[in-house]
UniProtKB/TrEMBL annotation:
Keywords: DNA-binding. PANTHER family: ACREF/ENVCD OPERON REPRESSOR-RELATED (PTHR43479), ACREF_ENVCD OPERON REPRESSOR-RELATED (PTHR43479:SF11). This is TetR/AcrR family transcriptional regulator. Residues 24-43 bind DNA.
Length: 278
């Protein structure tokens, strides 16, 4: 595990227990067992670390739902699996999300706002891809209303995990929201949200996709950091595939599947998927 990953995991644990403001860089470095110098080689400040933590969560959330949309074969259960995967992520990171929402007024800066809007746009793209797959031309006039409703479902129901310590049935929640989304998609006729209005909510341009060279560099970096043999070998083979393609799409997809469950490889899989179209 790289020093940056050690810092992130140590900071997550401390922030969840005592909050952003009450946690010092010294406490983070002590908990991580590293020097302050090593911290500042990875992050210029605690604020930059907080942006890195949001990156860490949003990369996993985005890559998880993207994987479901691209790889779940049964259209009749895709909405259910989409919601279940999303809320599993909320549940897993509830402690950190609670602290972030409570203290964001003290920590939000322009870098963080831009970062959140970037991921918001990626989630819009993934959700729109899913809706087109399920409903085709039947939602041409209502698709932006549907995306807004789905994001509203996320926002309202994620608070159940963040603010209330209750045993929640993820299966039932996902089934309920999948049913409601399907009803809206099939029977809604009136449309308020135009594409122009929808796009106006996030005016920053999308970041460009990473280049092949950047992906190769990222795969090399991950291969150096990770010890698990299957994950390491899969990273190496995918790097070679980018340099000189020799494997079929099915093999590439299998190699990417080997990386999916590793917490530090989900974003690599997402970027690879966008690059190679798998």
């Amino acid at each position: 595990m790289s020093k940056k990953q050690v810092i992130i995991e140590s900071a997550l644990e401390l922030f969840s227990k005592q909050g952003f403001e009450a946690t010092s860089v010294q406490q983070i470095t002590d908990h991580a067992g590293i020097s302050k110098g090593a911290f500042y080689l990875s992050f210029k400040s605690k604020d930059e670390l907080i942006v890195g933590l949001i990156d860490h969560f949003m990369m996993q959330f985005t890559s998880d739902i993207d994987w479901v949309v691209k790889n779940h074969q049964n259209n009749s259960t895709l909405l259910f699996q989409f919601y279940k995967t999303a809320f599993q992520s909320f549940q897993q990171h509830a402690d950190f999300a609670k602290i972030f929402i409570k203290e964001q007024s003290q920590t939000l800066n322009q870098d963080l706002i831009t970062k959140l809007r970037y991921y918001d746009k990626l989630i819009n793209v993934i959700t729109l891809e899913m809706l087109h797959r399920l409903y085709g031309d039947g939602i041409m006039t209502t698709k932006y209303d549907l995306i807004t409703c789905i994001k509203g479902f996320f926002d309202v129901h994620s608070h159940l995990f963040i603010f209330f310590d209750l045993p929640l049935d993820l299966e039932k929640l996902a089934a309920s929201l999948a049913e409601k989304t399907d009803l809206l998609a099939r029977h809604s006729r009136e449309s308020f949200m135009t594409e122009e209005l929808f796009q106006s909510f996030s005016v920053e341009p999308m970041e460009e996709d990473v280049t092949k060279e950047q992906l190769i560099e990222l795969l090399e970096q991950k291969a150096e950091e990770i010890a698990e043999p299957i994950v390491k070998e899969s990273l190496e083979l995918l790097k070679l595939q980018l340099i000189e393609p020799v494997y079929s799409p099915a093999i590439v997809k299998g190699l990417m599947g080997n990386l999916r469950e590793h917490p530090h490889c989900k974003w690599v899989v997402y970027l690879l998927g966008r690059h190679v179209g798998v």
